[in-house]
Amino acid sequence: MRAQPAKSSEWRRRFADEARSERPDLSLLCLLLSGEADPELDEAGIDAAQIELDKLAGQLPFRPGGPREWAAAAAELLGGQHGFHGSPPDYQRLESSLLHQVLRRRRGLPILLSVVWIEVARRAGAPVYGVALPGHFVVGFGSPDAYGKPEQVLADPFNGGRLLSTEDAEQLVAQASGGRLNPSLLSAADPLNIMLRILNNIRAWAAARSERSHVALWALELSLLLPSHPARLRYERAHLLVERGDFLAGARGLDEYAEVVASIEPTTAERVRLEARAARAKLN
User: Fold this and answer.
1) Segment Disordered: which positions (predicted)?
2) Domain check: are 180 and 273 in the same one?
């Protein structure tokens, strides 16, 4: 599925504006991203998704107690009553990274299910935030600085909101990276970092499917609209354009990236310039 060019251009402008705002709206950014993948998603669809989040928030108990009570209430509502969860096959579906589809299907990747938890609980007044563990995104309730204390409670939306002990979190990190759980990993994830991670997931999904290179391209281009992003993404976009046969635009992007890294990585810059010349040669 591809967004119509006119709509895509306007929504990208809105995406960039929202990403650069003082307090970026995570749910709106996710929905504007969804518009790149789903040409049927329009303004009414965005409004409907936001209303659904509001309705779910209205079903949470009013101030149920401390962090554990908030986490348990969210798990009961979202994981229990409404059946939000994930399973291994969800990693094979692009819809699992699109918020409006996750709200419809009640299925998704850990990070998108976490976005649902965050947005619903935040609307209800809960002290909630995202926690970007390596390989598995979860949510935290309470204080992000209270590692190992009752003031911080972790929940795993992919598993229906199962509450996690410190040992559970340590095991998730060990399984994903082979490393140990550093308390710094439990800090609150910034909305823009969440967006970059979602876009990275989409790029990884598309990379395994050569016929979906257009998905990888728009995911890269949205990533580049974020105010902070790895410079290498510019190289990856240019390289992908060459792979897709847009040799002139790809060569231009390679030259631009070479200029960016020339002062700190002159050898890399020269190699990239050679790639740019090779791309232009394909036009002959």
Assistant:
1) 1-22
2) no
User: Same structural domain for residues 100 and 31?
Assistant: yes
68 and 90 Cβ atoms separated by less than 8 Å = no
Tokens matching residue 238: 């240019």
My answer on whether 152 and 13 are in the same domain is yes
The tally of domains found in the chain comes to: 2
Residue 84 placed within a domain = yes
Q: What is the pLDDT of residues 79-107, one digit of tens each?
A: 999 999 999 999 999 999 999 999 999 99
Write the DSSP symbol of residue 76.
I
Q: What is the pLDDT of residues 134-178, one digit of tens each?
A: 989 999 999 888 777 778 899 999 999 999 988 898 888 888 888
Angle subtended at Cα 86 by Cα 25 and Cα 103, rounded to the nearest 5 degrees: 40
User: Which pTM was predicted?
Assistant: 0.93
Domain that holds residue 236: 230-281
137 contact partners, CB below 8 Å, separation of at least 6: 109, 110, 111, 114, 130, 131, 189, 194, 197
* Cβ neighbourhood burial of 10 (10 Å; 0-12, 13-18, 19+): middle
CA-nearest of 20, 42, 21, 16 to 31 is 42
